[in-house]
Design brief:
Radius of gyration of chain B: 18 Å
Shape of chain A: globular
Largest interface: A-B, 28 and 30 residues
Order of helices and strands of chain A: EEEHEEHEHHHEHEHEEHEEHEH
Largest sheet of chain A: 6 strands, mixed
Oligomer: heterodimer
Helix content of chain A: 25-40%
Structural class of chain B: mainly alpha
Order of helices and strands of chain B: HHHHHHHHHH
Structural class of chain A: alpha/beta
Number of strands of chain B: 0
Strand content of chain B: under 5%
Shape of chain B: globular
Strand order of the largest sheet of chain A: 6-7-8-3-9-10
Largest sheet of chain B: none
Helix content of chain B: over 70%
Number of strands of chain A: 13
Distance between the termini of chain B: 24 Å
Number of helices of chain B: 10
Chain lengths: 281, 236
């Protein structure tokens, strides 16, 4: 069963084409990463999937319903969303902000304690939002998006304003949510985040998907077919994968001269640059 | 349409907390009270002066506060966050309007008491003011939804304040400028006419017409505010 199914989605704003025939499927329970630079169409697609924007063409289904149905109350309970536009009530405390969402989702009071633990903000629950740092606000916004433990979670740059310790804490929490059945659709610029968190990623550039697959698969597909041997003498040898190289390696091994040896794979960032000619910023 | 009292209550409580901590907006409750105290000892046409205080208060308190509450949610993107929760359009609009309605009703009642306005038909006065609060709340919602920022919203209320408050007074030039007759159909003019008619003990038919016109305004503007809200659910 697919959590998200997108078939030939197109979106144009006047003469500007934002999405060109984008198609992909995300099975239930997956963490899927959408990679792309600013303006590549990530947020446009996210808005179409959450019924905030109408597509010009194609079909998108979320939880096996047309994406336009996501504005229905029953459907809205099934997903959570965090975008860079998600706002908080500045004059209310962290706890009061969460209490608004708790009441809207008709949840018990204990859900606030659980989600505050999840985002590591229990000690700061009484602080007003207008005195919080950017990273803390990001964590409160995330808490508001997940307080109801949604079946499907849309996250737009969830850790962009966080330090490494809190990023690791959030990643751990997202994996926990995923283990409990939440499908996660994540857009990110952070290649490490995509590699460590996502089962599959898609690379979007100028409204088109340039590659899709598991990070390891993409690396295999785009590897350059060479390996590097580091010798105990400190020399590095870059070899093609052929019979001559095998003979050379066997010789070094018999003499105990190999320090370490590895295939030369591109990182996700390198793959993105290779496919699009653009740097991820 | 999906309506939930729990969700309405959640929005109401949230708005109450925000309103009580936002002094730039909550100070507006003092205007009707100050006007009532200022004009209480004025001699002359009591109904006309009272109508002016009510019309001014409805624009300055009801419309202004509602426009600010909505515009602030838009400016800070919390309205979109609210739209993404199970809260339906009616939950949000009723929840947000309920606070402004109750504050307006309490402040107008207190101002009426301070001014010392007396009427033999309390029911009719209550109905006229109640419907007027709904109407001015809808105007505030429209101003708030059209504005991108809080500042824009507070400025957008001023044309409403000028036209609706000054409209009944401009009718004295009606004979010189016949086109001004159109101002007679403003809800503020109708409220003035109703209060004057009540004072002179007019027949039921004469009392019903202004009330019907105010109700038509309230229904039309409420429908427009709903349509506009629905449009704001989607990006263009």
């Amino acid at each position: 069963m697919n959590a998200i199914s997108v078939q030939n989605i197109q979106k144009a704003f006047g003469g500007n084409v934002a999405l060109k025939d984008v198609s992909f499927e995300i099975p239930k329970g997956e963490i899927f990463g959408f990679l792309g630079p600013s303006g590549s169409g990530k947020t446009t697609l996210l808005k179409i999937l959450t019924a905030q924007l109408e597509a010009t063409g194609g079909h998108a289904a979320v939880m096996e319903m047309p994406s336009g149905m996501m504005q229905k109350t029953a459907q809205k309970r099934r997903f959570g969303i965090l975008t860079d536009n998600s706002g908080l009530y500045e004059r209310l405390s962290i706890e009061e902000n969460l209490d608004v969402f708790r009441r809207l989702y008709d949840l018990p009071k204990s859900s606030i304690d659980q989600v505050l633990h999840f985002v590591n903000l229990n000690a700061d629950r009484k602080k007003r939002v207008n005195v919080l740092s950017k990273g803390m606000r990001q964590r409160v916004t995330l808490a508001c998006a997940i307080i109801h433990e949604p079946e499907l979670l849309f996250l737009d740059e969830p850790t962009s304003a966080l330090d490494p310790v809190n990023t690791a804490h959030i990643h751990k929490g997202l994996r926990y949510l995923n283990e409990r059945g939440t499908t996660i659709f994540l857009t990110t610029h952070d290649m490490t985040e995509a590699e460590t968190l996502c089962e599959r990623v898609a690379i979007l550039h100028k409204g088109e998907i340039r590659a899709i697959g598991a990070p390891d698969e993409l690396k295999k597909v785009h590897r350059d077919g060479t390996l590097t041997v580091e010798l105990t003498s400190g020399e590095k040898e870059r070899l093609s994968m052929n019979e001559d190289s095998a003979t050379a390696i066997a010789g070094w091994m018999s003499r105990g001269q190999i320090d370490r040896m590895y295939t030369n794979e591109l990182s996700l960032g390198d793959i993105f640059i290779k496919l699009t000619g653009s740097e991820l910023v | 349409m999906n309506v939930s009292l729990k969700r309405i209550q959640a929005i109401f409580i949230k708005d109450y907390k925000e309103f009580s901590r936002n002094y730039a907006v909550s100070i507006m409750i003092l205007f009707p009270i100050a006007f009532a105290l200022l004009y209480r000892s004025e001699a002359g046409d009591q109904a006309a002066i009272y109508a002016f205080i009510m019309n001014f208060s409805l624009a300055m308190l009801t419309s202004f506060v509602q426009a600010c509450l909505i515009a602030e949610e838009k400016e800070r993107n919390t309205l979109r966050s609210l739209m993404m929760t199970p809260a339906s359009m009616l939950d949000v609009l009723i929840g947000k309007s309920a606070l402004v309605f109750l504050i307006s009703a309490a402040v107008l009642a207190f101002s009426t008491y301070l001014f010392g306005y007396e009427t033999s038909n309390v029911m009719l006065l209550t109905a006229a003011l109640g419907i007027s609060i709904l109407l001015y709340t809808a105007i505030g919602t429209i101003c708030g939804l059209y504005s991108k920022t809080l500042l824009e919203a507070s400025l957008s209320v001023f044309p409403v304040l000028i036209i609706f408050t000054a409209g009944p007074f401009a009718l004295v030039f009606e004979e010189q400028y016949p086109f001004l007759e159109v101002l007679r159909y403003l809800p503020s003019s109708q409220l003035s006419e109703l209060l004057v008619a009540m004072e002179i003990g007019a027949a039921a038919g004469e009392l019903a017409t202004p009330l019907i016109i105010i109700t038509v305004w309230a229904v039309v503007l409420t429908v427009i505010s709903f349509i506009l809200y629905k449009k704001r659910l989607m990006d263009q």
